[in-house]
Amino acid sequence: MEIRAKENGGRLTLYFSGELDHHAAKEVMRRAEELLDRYMPLDCMLDLSGLSFMDSSGVAVILRLYKRLLNTGGRIWLENPQEQPLRVLDISGIERLVKITTTAKEQGR
Questions:
Q1: pLDDT (tens digit per residue) in 53-109
Q2: pTM for the complete prediction?
């Protein structure tokens, strides 16, 4: 599992790639929080286009990041999840809290 970051004018984009499961979740959360501490963004976008697999541990990571940004007055959203992670996100109901943008959804998936 890898996370890359790009900051631009108060917006931090985190690019997730690999598999986000219970084995990777703790390290992913540590790395994501480190990046949030470094950049202190108002907005944070999680680009999931490189994430090939995610289980409920990934949902927990996203919720923890959501709460952290919410507590600092920031916003977080997800973009471009692949099919399997999108199914997990849909089942979790996380979209009630965190916006998910995908080309497939916008086209009436």
A1: 999 999 999 999 999 999 999 999 999 999 999 999 999 999 999 999 986 544 444
A2: 0.91
Buried b (16+ CB within 10 A) or exposed e, 67-86: ebbeeeebebebbbbeeebb
| Dist. CA 87–CA 11, nearest whole Å | 27
> Could you tell me if 12 and 31 are in contact, meaning their C-beta atoms sit under 8 angstroms apart?
no
Yes or no: say if 59 and 29 are a contact pair by the CB < 8 Å rule: no
Tokens linked to 35: 């990046």
Q: Is the dihedral of CA 56, 61, 64, 69 positive or negative?
A: negative
